[in-house]
Amino acid sequence: MNWAAVNFDWNQVRGFLATVEEGSLSAGARALGLTQPTLGRQVAALEESLGVVLFERVGRNLSLTPSGRELLDHVRAMGEAAGRISLAASGQSQAVEGKVTISASDVLSAYFLPPIIAKLRRATPLIEIEVLATNQISDLQHREADIAMRHVRPEEPELIAKLVQEATAHFYATTEYLDRRGRPQSPEELDGHDFISFGEPERMIEYMQPFGLNLKRENFKLHCENGIVSWQMVRRGLGIATMEESVAMATPGIERVMTFLAPIKFPVWLTTHRELHTSRRIRVVFDALAEAFQGHSTASSNVRI
């Protein structure tokens, strides 16, 4: 390798890549934990060391020059390689201490993870746990999380996944709401009822059609991407919604409705990166989560509302 030909600093390359992918110097600086002037100096230093202009200003925005576009694919490859190096180094750690980030849906994070984490903390007090309560799929390959709990099986070959539970959900409402609005005994009796959607109503309408529920947009007066918020609306008697069975059973004043419908089944996949799975601290947390969720009755009994 011609070492003399490598005349740039990786930190400067990283600053260039963050600026491109985040869309601006200010956003790139936030992503890297830098100030905007510091990032600007890094990009300028890279331009100087390479002898090219990477960005040009168009009004208040930055636009890649032809030279910048030509370098971008190479720089992205460098970024991915740097990520793999970080993963490999993390995977070699054998100490049962350090930080482990778990990504899970808001409902899983609020109702299922706390008792599992409490038990884990007693067993391994040197492990630091961060929970990302999000309904978006975290990118494990880019270290947004070390472990992710998903309802879909990952397809990336670099990830390993374990099916830890086939969860069950039903439709629920409060007794007060049902006393006031009636208890529907067939799909035809749903027209006058209010439903609460987890996310966009159109998506929920489409999701419910295979169950023989031809609901209309007018049935959904309330919707929220956050499952915990939506469930609180149900608890206030504002309508009908789906919820995981053990969470609903632990909620006072809630009844299952539309019992003529088959249960809604959905998987819970525990996912991590192949290299991270060789880390003892990751393995300890992964195994604790798998054990708790596979013992469904144990996990269910620990749900607290």
Automatic annotation (TrEMBL):
PANTHER family: HTH-TYPE TRANSCRIPTIONAL REGULATOR, TRANSCRIPTIONAL REGULATORY PROTEIN. One of its GO terms (molecular function) is sequence-specific DNA binding. InterPro entries: LysR-type_TF_proteobact-type (IPR058163), LysR_HTH_N (IPR000847), LysR_subst-bd (IPR005119), WH-like_DNA-bd_sf (IPR036388), WH_DNA-bd_sf (IPR036390). Residues 8-65 form the HTH lysR-type domain. Belongs to the LysR transcriptional regulatory family. This is Transcriptional regulator, LysR family. GO terms for biological process: DNA-templated transcription. PROSITE patterns: HTH_LYSR. Keywords: DNA-binding, Transcription, Transcription regulation. It comes from the Bacteria. It holds the Pfam family HTH_1. It comes from Candidatus Rhodobacter oscarellae.
